[in-house]
Design brief:
Layout: H1 5-22, H2 24-27, H3 32-49, H4 69-73, H5 82-108, E1 120-126, E2 131-133, E3 136-148, E4 153-165, E5 178-186, H6 191-198, E6 205-215, H7 220-239, H8 242-253, H9 261-269, H10 280-296, H11 301-318, H12 323-340, H13 347-361, H14 369-392, H15 398-421, E7 424-426, H16 429-456, H17 458-483, E8 489-491, H18 496-515, H19 521-534, H20 538-541, E9 549-552, E10 561-564, E11 570-573, H21 581-588, E12 593-598, H22 604-607, H23 610-616, E13 618-623, H24 632-644, E14 647-649, E15 656-659, E16 662-668, H25 679-682, E17 686-691, E18 694-698, H26 704-713, E19 721-723, H27 734-740, E20 744-747, H28 759-767, E21 771-774, H29 775-778, E22 781-786, E23 789-794
Parallel strand pairs: 4-6, 11-12, 12-13, 13-14, 18-19, 19-20, 20-21
Antiparallel strand pairs: 1-3, 1-5, 2-3, 3-4, 5-6, 7-8, 9-10, 9-22, 10-11, 15-16, 16-17, 17-18, 22-23
Length: 796
């Protein structure tokens, strides 16, 4: 199989692990033990099929074997039959599927899953730091002991559970700590949540009624990492400002919990989030001085390897054993062991061996997006960095060629994974990484030095921190400025086809660069024709429409609508309940500037996605009601607006905005409401958007009081298109729909427990003469005005 045999086998094992969950119908009819037998048989057949090569044969090292031409025709250059290599890969893939099946059996045999919904007391170790949520907190705990409260029976177990709690049962602890939880275990009914837990090897979720920290980690080694982490982290927070401290904690310790929200959005918008996780570069910066000291002490090769492995393991635990640092640490340990044994291996082999070991230890790691990206990026560097750097060196100076070559290699390799999971790859990433790269090491090394000095003498540490802040601020500036650069994004709807075709393109590119192979013209033409089908690119829809166009995005149970005009005007009303979706939708449409952004009212299903939009797109002005509201959502939006320096206005009924060729009339509110069932909903902005005689009424989430006031005042509500208030809830009056008399009514709605849209509202809309379009049934609904009449299309 050649030098890429081990990587190919690792890829086969990875594919087998995925196959068990991606295509279970093909594998689960047979028991797991049967698949182990099949895999072992395939490997045995491969061994039998492989010809013996005599050691005394002088031609063997050259890859030549004796035999008939017919025999040589089925042999690869090293004397192994192609069929034998295929059998090896098939056998390894089947064993991978069997290994995943065995892990699934262990998950399904959960002891805690059989106890619910009774109350139990759990004790165990925090696998990761406690993380805040909208409703309280969550954590993952490796349980070691269970007590059934009613029966007082105590059982020793080894099981990982998902735990959540509220402010009445707070948990203040760090990863590695021993904790005690009292609550009710259950296997989640929600399919999406259960699937997310399954992909982490977790069967049970526990809602905590009581939670407390029992003490530090029982292992002295892990306790040492906790002490170092607390000391270094505390020093960083003392000698740096809050924004720089949050950035350095991410760079040095992989702790993004204190990262400023605006900085995090900027790094995400420019594709620089990999800098906020610990990876191979951090491991190398730790390992290099440790090995240098070991060499200076004249330790033997074995002693140096032992010291190096210990340092790597300590650093991996110190930084939380995130997937990327686990991959880097496993590679470092594998390489050190190879050196210790006097048998160093290529980087490709080291990567493959490290990945294989990690997947055997934790097969659920195959589903971790961070692990997938880390392996893909490293594989890209191994396969593509050298040939790309060599070619760029012909055009630019060597240092720049190296920076561009390595950045492009990693980006090309991770792009299929990013498009599969997130549907978005900003093209500005290459520039951002090249510009940011020179500042990363100085920021990290100077920052850690400042923290270390601060442990001894805080004033001296603060002085060094002042210098370290310079490269940190450069990183933040690069992310902030380039995040809103008017550069296109490559976007997709995801799916296995995108991943498969993207992976094939990466493989073809690797082969072409490393061997000089060029694909046949037919293959090139086919790929070119298939690409627009698989990649939802901004080029398809970029440019001004021929008439007033409104896209009511399918954002689930929420609202987000984009209005564009022939004159190039772009207005976004609300941002939906997902942090990234609307920003990705805009990128796919080639929207790099918004004349107006409207935050109709501060409810999660309308504004959660706006901060990411503000970080990525140039915005002229933001309109919002400006009514008293002390919710965290409003505070987050206000911070995002201030961070991006965007002008804000709080219009009232009667205000008129002329934006390019579009007119926006503010219909409501005339004041901030008080004493209604939902003051925030009635405070929501209602807008009448028009281009000539074409009119769209965005009725947001107004309820009966606001609607009845508009009817009493005789406000002109007539429109061609109505965005139905409040997702079609029973909070509208039929007379309001009659006054609008819109031929087209769009209900922005998703899966919900409220019964939206309710039958009475739908009946009232039909009675008013409207044809109802629902985003939960039709996907994104697009309305285009052509010669005075609206044309409506759905995505499905």
């Amino acid at each position: 199989m050649g030098g890429w045999g081990l990587p190919a086998a690792t890829a086969a094992f990875w594919g087998g692990l995925l196959a068990w969950t991606v295509r279970p119908s093909l594998l689960r009819p047979l028991p797991v033990w049967a698949w182990f037998v099949v895999g072992t048989a395939a490997l045995a057949a491969a061994l039998i099929a492989a010809p013996g090569v005599r050691r005394s044969d002088p031609l063997a090292p050259a890859g030549l074997v004796r035999g008939e031409p017919q025999t040589r025709a089925v042999l690869d250059p090293r004397g192994r039959p192609v069929g034998s290599a295929v059998l090896v890969l098939v056998g390894v893939a089947v064993l991978g599927a069997a290994w995943a099946g065995l892990a699934d059996i262990r998950r399904l045999s959960s002891y805690l899953g059989r106890l619910g919904p009774g109350t139990v007391a759990l004790s165990g170790t925090l696998r990761e730091d406690v993380r805040p949520t909208a409703l309280g907190w969550r954590a993952i705990i490796d349980v070691t002991r269970v007590t059934i409260v009613a029966g007082r029976a105590e059982v020793v177990v080894r099981e990982t559970v998902w735990v959540s709690g509220d402010d009445e049962a707070p948990l203040t602890a760090a990863r590695g700590d021993l904790v005690a939880i009292t609550g009710s275990p259950e296997v989640p009914d929600d399919v999406a949540f259960a699937d997310a837990l399954r992909r982490r090897g977790i069967a049970v979720a526990v809602r905590a009624r009581f939670a407390t920290r029992l003490g530090p980690a029982p292992s002295p080694f892990i306790r040492a990492t906790q002490i170092v982490r607390a000391a270094v982290g505390g020093s960083i927070e003392r000698v740096f400002g809050s924004r720089e401290a949050g950035l350095l904690l991410g760079l040095a310790l992989g702790d993004a919990s204190r990262l400023d929200a605006a900085t995090e959005r900027d790094f995400r918008a420019t594709g620089l989030t990999h800098l906020l996780v610990v990876s191979g570069g951090n491991v190398a910066m730790v390992l290099a001085p440790v090995l240098a000291v070991a060499a200076a002490l004249r330790l033997a090769r074995v002693g140096q390897a032992i010291v190096g492995v210990t340092a790597v393991v300590f650093f991996v635990i110190l930084t939380g054993a995130e997937p990327s640092v686990m991959r880097a640490g496993a590679m470092a340990v594998t390489a050190l062991l190879g050196v210790m044994l006097g048998r160093p291996r290529s980087t490709a082999a080291v990567l493959a061996a490290a990945v294989w070991v990690l997947l055997v230890l934790d097969p659920w790691l195959v589903h971790a997006v961070g692990f997938q990206l880390s392996v893909a990026a490293t594989g890209g560097l191994v396969a593509l960095a050298a040939p790309l750097t060599e070619r760029f060196a012909r055009l630019v100076p060597a240092p720049l060629a190296a920076a561009v070559g390595t950045t492009l290699a990693a980006q090309v390799a991770v792009s299929p994974v990013l498009l599969f999971h997130f549907g978005d790859v900003p093209l500005i990433t290459l520039v951002a990484n090249v510009v940011a790269a020179p500042a990363v090491a100085p920021a990290l090394l100077a920052g850690v030095a400042a923290a270390a000095i601060g442990l001894v003498a805080e004033p001296a540490g603060a002085a060094v921190a002042a210098v370290a802040q310079l490269p940190m601020r450069w990183l933040a500036l690069v992310a902030d400025v380039l995040g809103r650069a008017p550069v296109a994004h490559v976007t997709s709807r995801g799916g296995l086809a995108v991943l498969a075709v993207g992976g094939a393109i990466v493989v073809a590119m690797t082969v072409a660069l490393r061997t000089g192979w060029r694909p046949p013209r037919a293959m090139f033409v086919a790929a070119t024709l298939a690409l627009p089908v698989l990649v939802w690119s901004s080029a398809v829809s970029k440019g001004a429409p021929s008439g007033l166009t409104v896209r009511f995005f399918d954002v689930g149970q929420g609202d987000a609508a984009l209005i564009t005009s022939p004159g190039g005007t772009a207005v976004l009303v609300d941002g939906g309940p997902d942090e990234e979706q609307v920003a990705t939708e805009l990128a796919a449409l080639g929207i790099t500037r918004l004349d107006v952004v409207v935050a109709s009212h501060p409810h999660a299903d309308h504004v959660i996605g706006l901060p990411a939009v503000l970080a990525r797109v140039q915005v002229s002005v933001l309109l919002q009601p400006g009514c008293p509201d002390d919710s965290p959502l409003q505070a987050d939006l206000d911070r995002a607006v201030a961070d991006e320096g965007i002008a804000v206005q709080h219009p009232r009924a009667g205000a008129v905005y002329t934006v390019g060729d579009i007119r926006i009339d503010v219909v409501s509110p005339d004041r901030c409401w008080s004493g209604t069932e939902s003051d925030t909903n009635n405070d929501a902005l209602i807008l009448r958007v028009s281009l000539g005689d074409d009119v769209v009424l965005i009725a947001s989430e107004s309820e009966e009081p606001a609607q009845e006031l508009l009817l009493e005042m005789g406000v002109d509500l007539r429109a061609d298109v109505l965005k139905v208030p409040h997702h079609g809830a029973a909070t509208s009056v039929p007379a309001f729909f009659d006054a609008v008399a819109a031929p087209v009514a769009v209900v922005s709605v998703g899966e919900n427990t409220y019964g939206h849209p309710v039958p009475s509202t739908l009946d009232a809309l039909v009675a008013s003469g409207s044809t109802v379009w629902r985003t939960d049934l039709r996907g994104t609904v697009t309305v285009t005005f052509d010669r005075g009449s609206p044309t409506v299309t759905g995505a499905s």
